[in-house]
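Because showing beats explaining, we let one protein speak, sequence and backbone structure tokens together, and leave readers to judge.
___
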Amino acid sequence: MKKILGIGNALVDVMTIINDDSILEKFGLPKGSMTLVDDIKSGMVKSETVHLNRSQASGGSAANTIHGLAMLSVNTGFIGSVGKDDTGDFFENDMKSAGVKTYLSRRNSITGTAVALISPDTERTFATHLGAAVELEAKDLDPSYFKNFDILYLEGYLIFNKPLVERACILAKENNMQIALDLASYNVVDAKLSDFKEIIEKYIDIVFANEDEAKSFTGFVTFEALNVISQSCDVAIVKVGKEGSLIKRGEEVIKIGTIDVQSIDTTGAGDLYASGFLYGYACGYSLEKCGLFGSVLAGHVIEIVGARMDELRWKRIIQLLKESVEEE
């Protein structure tokens, strides 16, 4: 099985269930997006929602994906930056408890947090204060981190630090690694479109995008967007919500459906889809099987609040994946 290294913003998620979308309008947060905020605005959002039902878990897009892979017994590592505080300790301990080898820089700044506002229709909107996470720099990437790994997984939010992304990609290619990239959020793609196109064209083997991100990247939707993305990478994946996902490699195009679930919170759906897909890819399964595994994980995570599933749910998932493989 291939070993997978992730790099991303090390954050702690504050999962908050809101009664309506008025708070999104109040703080100018586009529904369904990830919006970067400063520590003052982050504090205001937290204060405004302190009376609501909320919980805390380690997070960040790439960290969620790597955590999920580790729960599937993949040999994983994660590179990030946290503060010298209890929140940073919480993040590190949570990753290590799943079996992830952590390569964390410790900063004097506070550990970043992402307030996830979950609307009644289960859509989630993030107000993210990156804190120490944004202080990860290209010079922090020790070449030894990349040795003995086969795949590098990058979250698109890192595109705001292009030198960091390029350095990670160069080190990965020097170690003969494949590189997978998730496009993160449509507003991030809108803001950094040219940088994304350059990085993908030069370095990326696997691209994950949801339908909004794919449209922002290509100007097209569904199959047309898939075709455009696939011209710049080996494997293109476009997730189309309740309709499942589309996968293309060369002339091979596959449509994957979803599993029947009761959605509560879509937080982590894309991240855990990537976990399932990359698990299948690391094991050498067909693209169809990889997509199916992605759907299984995404379907299970949206039945809970947040992106961290309990041990019982993971056992159920592992059994489903095993049964799927045995059917071949």
